[in-house]
Amino acid sequence: MRIYHLNCATMCPVSAKLVNGTGCLISPAEMICHCLLIETKNKLILVDTGLGLQDLANPDHLGYIFRKIIRPKLSLAETAAEQVKKLGYSTNDVQHIILTHLDLDHAGGLPDFPNAEVHVSGSEYNAAMAIGSLRAKFRYHSAHWSHNPKWKTHRVEGENWFGFEAVRTIDNEETEILLIPLIGHSDGHCGIAIKLSEKWILHCGDAYFFYGEMSLNKSHCTLGLSTYQRMMETDHKARRNNRNRLRELKQYHGNSIQMFCSHDHSELLKCREENDPNIFKT
Fold this sequence. Notes:
This protein is an alpha/beta fold. The protein contains ten helices and 13 strands.
């Protein structure tokens, strides 16, 4: 088994100072969409998809606010479909997609893998299918599942994982892959835990946005990202509690669990250096 750390959407909101904590107040910031491609003996598995080919062809359906504030680059080379092809595979080789949640920058590539079974928590699926609030209309885009994917929804149940509730997602003889409920950013937001031979990988999704939030000395986040998280959250108390629990997880089990979030570029670079410094350097 091999895991590739992909960036499937570069986003450049205004103010590197307010978003990244460095640089000029009016210079572009840098955010990414950290996805995983899991290469096993018999299948390919994607964790999140980033933006997809349809988003590039018709960026209007991403919404005016997202395009003007988040400012995605819309790069063909960064789509998961193109990166899968770069590795010598077909998009049909991706048999499973596991989603932290269904926000547009995490599920935009679903139509590029029409034959894949799509795994998501049942509560997240229900929230996305019942778009009602202004926040929901901003974050979910039905065009991303208009091809009628092969949904596989999961309830919160199953074995305990380092004190967290866990749901096994795929019966896979080569590794364990678990959905870890981390609600708060959205109604059914989950982390994805993957068992390697010597440690676990935990993709925390949008449970936090900035590496400093996991600092064991003094937790901190930039003003821009703190504000954005408050704007998008569906349960403030749950989001803060789960973020604090992740920090405790890192404190007590950091040697056996590699943790990262979806949008921090520095964490992506660190993961690539630790796993394979010669692939996808951009």
